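Protocol step 4 of 6: structure prediction from sequence.
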Amino acid sequence: MSKTVISTTEAPSAIGPYSQAIKAGNMLFVSGQIPIDPATGQLISSTIEAETHRVMQNIGAILQAAGLGYEHIVKTGIFLKSMNDFAAVNEVYASYFTSDFPARETVEVARLPKDARVEISVVAVG
């Protein structure tokens, strides 16, 4: 099975030795996204809701670059700096789906890259 690197300027560039996403067969593995504005390269750190929207928009841009949409997501991993943000993140996250929500885990972690408060990775099929 071959793999293809998926990359777009509509999402932040990788901040380490990894790709924004890898397509293998009909599966797309999107690296964890934090709330970086791709236009400025700056971390969004106003509210957890704004940060989560930015993360989901970054994911959407990568999905689009691969010819997919949110409806193709089958698995999501959410990493939070504080589980106290769970309800707010959950509300924003849910707004990106219309039905058939992906499988998911949400975990609290000690620290995220650039001291972000939320990071989300996804697996999509299409």
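Step 5 (inspection) to follow. The radius of gyration is 14 Å.
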